[in-house]
Amino acid sequence: MRSVKFMKFAVSPIIALAFLSALLSFGKFDHCFNANFATPDVYTHACYSDLPALFGARGLINHTWPYSSATNAVEYPPVTGMVMWLTSLPTHHDKSYFLINVLFIALLFVGVAFLTAKMKPKLWYLLPLSPAVIGSLYINWDLWAVGSAILGIYYFDRRKYDYSAIALGLSIATKFFPIVLLAPIALIFYRRREMRSLARYCIITAGTWLLINAPFILFSRTGWWRFFKMNGERGVDFGSLWYALNLFNISTSNPNNLSILLFLIGIAAYAVYFFGLSNLPTLATTSFIVVAIFTISSKVYSPQYVLWLTPLAILAMRDKKDRPAFWIWQGAELLYHLAIWEYLASYSGSHFGFPARAYASATLIRIAATIFFAVRVSTRSRAPQGLEFLISQSEGYA
């Protein structure tokens, strides 16, 4: 009955607000669309998108198989690669290619908003109202992976573990870094002493991933491997803590090991905190913390990563008292969103743009705000959960 009521009274505003945000995002990219995504125009107007850029750069304009080259294969796992290729088939023009992908991404955003509303019915509207989200929708294909990851979290918290594992395996085959969600999943199963369920979950997730990847491993191995090779060999890149420190002339030797070490330390510290909680949090609550740790320690932070963090942040929030902290964090994300493009503008020879240290400062502000918000939602999860909170959660998942 509650599900019927949710469908009847909530679906229309969710669709309307999500589509409005998608249209606003398209308006942000409209200048670059009309200017044929010229450089450095895409940076000075903060409307760069990988969609048209990789359409030409990876040979999709000629409908080239995305994993046919060892040196120019698409730099994404198979599901994203297939989306890129299949959406290229109806056109030979970057503008129409952009529009085709925009349509699918907008529909995916509505789906993510709907799932967020199901899990957090009193705070879901924060997703389509988040300015950094609106500004980032059409930068990349991330929402294909975000949708399946959020679906996996939804099923997990309803204890439909097989469905959750399939959705997570699909997400990992789309973008790969959702694999970090296995960390909070393992913590939850371990605390429940459900080790057989954990083993089954991991087997189904791995099996789903392998089933999707197997044809590419067998028939396009070199091109398929390029994604893993590039990520293993890449140095520190834009948006990362390590890149910001380098801009301040603070050298970081062996950033690969430092990145892994910082991530492991962060996960270990959160595990200690997690096992000290009197109430077992949901996967929806804990996922933001783990993904935040991953993005802070990673060698790169792309602007569209906010599309991963924001739904998880909303799910991690306890109630409306967390909204001020949420907006502080979103403000820092918006600052970074503007800073990266203006820094790249100056980096690309434009007369206007952010100097290096101003950009590095924006990066550190974003990281500090992420830590602040993560600490906020973590400490709030320690407080006793009142009847109103428990009722709201049960209504959301009904």
Compressed to H and E, one letter per element, the order equals HHHHHHHHHHHHHHHHHHH
Q: Biggest sheet, open or closed, and with what strands and sense?
A: none
DSSP strand content = under 5%
Rounded mean pLDDT score: 91
- Give the helix level as a range of percent: over 70%
How many domains? The number is 1
Report what the structure shows.
The protein has 398 residues and is mainly α. The protein has one domain (2-397). It is 71% helix and 0% strand. The protein has helices at 2-34, 41-44, 50-57, 78-86, 94-119, 126-129, 131-136, 142-157, 161-175, 182-191, 195-219, 221-233, 241-247, 255-275, 283-297, 306-316, 323-347, 356-380, 387-397. The longest helix is centred in the first third of the chain and has 33 residues, at 2-34. It is globular.
